[in-house]
Every structure is written in C-alpha cells, then in structure tokens.
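[agent] plan:
  1. take the single chain provided in the ticket
  2. run structure prediction with default settings
  3. attach structure tokens to the ticket
  4. add a short note for the reviewer (M.T.)
[agent] executing step 1
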Amino acid sequence: MRYLFENYTFDIERRELHRGADAVSITPQVFDLLDYLIRNRERVVSKDELIGAVWNGRSVSDAALTTRLNAARNAIGDSGEEQRLLKTLPRKGFRFVGSVQEARTPAVASVAAHPGEQDPERIAGPELSCAVDGEGFGAKTHNGGTIPVPSRSPRLSIVVLPFANLSGDLEHDYFVDGVTECLTTDLSLFSNLFVIARNSAFSYKGKEIDVRQVGRELSVRYALEGSVQHNGNRLRVNVQLIDAENGKHLWAERFEKPVVDLFDMQDEIVSRLAYTVVTQLVVAAARRAERLLHPDAKDLTFQGVACLYKGWTAEYVGQAREFFKRALAIDHRSIGALSGMANVDLIAAFSLLTDEPTASLSAAETNAIKALSLAPDDAVVHLILGGIYIWTNRAVQGIAECEHALALDRNVARAHGAIGLAKVLMGRAAETEGHVLEALRLSPRDTGANLWMHFVGAAKMHLGADAEAVGWLRRSIETNHNFPPAHFALAAALGLLGALDEARAAARAGLALNPGFTIRRLRAAKPSDNPTYLAGQERFCEGTRLAGVPEG
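[agent] step 2 finished; step 3 output follows
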C-alpha cells in the first residue's frame, strides 16, 4: 500500500518515503510514527496511544517524542509553526490533516536502499538491467520471474547485516534492528556507495552465516557486522567491517556510553559509524586499485581521496592532485574527481602550500560548481563549496552551504567543523568550540578531527587564551602529525607564551612538512576583512615571528 499526499509517496511495504522522484531519509521510529498517524488520519491520536503503538508502551520522554514529531514534519516538508500536514492539538493529541490518496504498490517495482539499487528479493519483469556507480547488472530467474543480480561486485558495495542483540532481552530487538536499519539508510546517502536493501539484509537475521557466502549471494565486496549490549545504564556497541571475498577483518570499532535516551543514543550510534565506515571502504578500495594495471577513473579517485586521508602535506596533496587529474583525463564528468580537484585546490590555499592562493581558490570554485551541476544533491560537494566560500571572505554563504550539506546528510560532521572555522573569520571565535565539539561527538575518529582541533586552537589564540590553544593544537598534532598548519599555530601560541625553545621546535616541524611557509604567505592569505579577526591574525603573525618562521 502507498499513501500519496502533496508531492510525497509513503510506501508501507517498502518502508520508503519519496518526494517526487527523490528518496527522503527517514529513521524507523519516524517512519512508524507517520505510518500510524496517516492510517488513523480520520481522528485525533492521543500521546499515550501513539507511544503505545510506535514504542510498544515503553517510557518515552516528552522531549524524545517532540524530537521525533519534528523529524516527521521535516521529512514531509512541514514545520512546527505551519503544521500544514501534521497538527498538534494541545491537551488532546496529534492528527495527520493532509489530503491523502491510497494506491497499491506496483508488483514489478523494486526496493532500493540506494538510488538505482535493485533489491534481489523482488521479482521484476524480463530483461531488467540497471547500473549503479558504473557497475553492470545481469539477471537470473527465480520462480519464473527475473531478478537483477550484479554481474560483478560494485567496488564500494556493502551489506549491513542485522546487528546482534547481546542483552538477552527481546524488548531491545526493536532498538537493535533500528540501529541496523538507520545505518543502512544513512550509508545509502553517500554517492557512489552501493548498499543492499534492508529486506535482503534482514533475511539473514538470527542465522549462522559465512560472510563469504553472503558476499557471493548478494554480490557485494564488504559486509558490516555488529552487536549491541545493553547492561543497566550502559550501552556497548561492537562493529566489524569484513572483506566479503576472503572473510578478512578490515576494521573494528567498539564504544561504550551511559544511556540517557535510547532513541537519542540510536541516532548517535549511526552518526558515529556512517562516515567512518565510508572512510574505511574508500581506503580498502584504494588498496585494491593500487594492484590494477589499468585503473579507471573511479579507482584513481579512490586513491586520490586516500592520499588526503594521510595528511595535508605538499607531498600528499600533490599525489592526490595527480590521481584526480588522471581520473578527469579518463572521465571529465567524474563527480568524485571534480570534487577531489576542488578539494586539493582549497587545501593548497588553506594550508598555504602555494604562493597563488587566489588562483587556487578560483579553480576550486569552478570545479565544485561543475560537480554540483552534475550532482546537485551531493552533500560532500556542498561542503567543499562551503569551505571555498568561507576561505574567500564569504563566511555567511559558506555557512549556508554547510547547513545545506547537513540537510542532505546529517552525518557530514565536517560541516560543523567548517562552521566553527567560519565563526573565527567572522570575529566570533568564542562560538567555534561548540561547533567543533558537535563534530567530534558525531565523528570522534574522523580523518578530519585534527583539522577541527586546529580550528579551536586558532580560535583560542584569537581570544587571547594562548595556553588553552596549546592544548588543542597538541591534540591536533597527536591525531595527525602530517598537518602543517597545526605545527605553525602551535609555534605561534608557544612564541606568544614566551616558550621560545619549544616554539622554534614546533616551527621546524612545520617547515619540514611545508618548506615554503613564510610570514609573507601568511599575510597574503586574506580570508576575512573582519576587524576582530584581523587583530587576532596580527597576534598570530607576531607569534610565528617569535618562533623563528622566515619572513619570506
């Protein structure tokens, strides 16, 4: 059954919400909430009834319920002020008031966890084929129908297997399944990532499985396994990324936290895992590409991105640039390579790896806009464009692009970090730490975490809190030594504190990574004309001078 209202399609069987032709990301609890309200749209549904139906009567705080109602409104283009579709009636309850039409789900349609993905469990018409990320599909027959099956595993292809509930409490199955389903949905938002649909993945729930067999059956290269254990007021999560071709473990993560609200915790688990999993997949794909005699544009793009994960030195940025150039020579419309080129030019200007930052930033903007013309809803490209705007004295526009990226994909933790940098350039450095802490909460082991710590260090220097700046900058360097700006910032902070021997040692470490860095380059970078920022930047220049950085 499908419910149609305004330009939305709410598909009960597939558990999908579409706005026009575009899939809308929605968590399981929010889907169930909308489902219940739409089914009972002829009457007002009380708070207790809604909690009983969606959460099986478990205790749910008013704040958690309000959060889910707001998420439901956001998903269908409504708001708490407008309440055009989902209305709150004080002291009575809630009612879906939109005009709804009912329609049967077409028998030949297929479920996709990612745009273009075909669910192998659904039978389709004859001679069906499709392409995902350039990977071809063949077909096999089943009970007289035709099921699309990848002719070879897409390079970035994954199945999120149902997480195991180790609590021994069946009441937590709903929560654990929700983690699996939300992670599947959020991973499907990443471009170029092929994610097996929920229905296919859940067919393995509770079964003893061989990951290699699962990989063959679903034609995926990677599998994500996990477990959740709820013990008292603490929650422990274990996750493993496995190569489905040989069964080898590629990466594992474990974290444990006190539980306040299970549903808020579910969101945090998914946010923490989504970006990290994608990062690990890109690294794995890059390693595979290294062994190829004739890599194509995607293989080269993976290698370029993996270079940037290592650090923002002249060496790694130069290597990444060459990979992206080679990719564009093969496919000039490659979104990954275009955004990669935009990113390396932005990095070159931001990290002061070039004497021509204006030209680098202009080239970066051209490539980012071209990538967005090909993929308007790519969150990462919006984030890169936001960074370009921020570093070219257009902080307000940059923040808007970062917020757009977050609207497209809430897991783009780097957008929070970029907004923190923008606040420094706007003369509002006191606000930077809050944005960075949010980024670290969402993705504490992000490959960009060292960059965010550097932003806080810079903000502290602009506030005159040089000792605090030293703490953040040391953390940045410990997280990734191959980031020259953090070394120079540390040198400046130590210089201002009078610790000249340590300042000079930090400056030497920075110059070993970026020999072309000079105070002249530092002054030539003019990302903002805000008077408060400029005063802070003058202190920074004085600190680097005390640390022995060349004038240039």
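[agent] step 4 note for reviewer: The chain has four domains: 2-103, 157-289, 295-410, 447-552.
[agent] ticket updated
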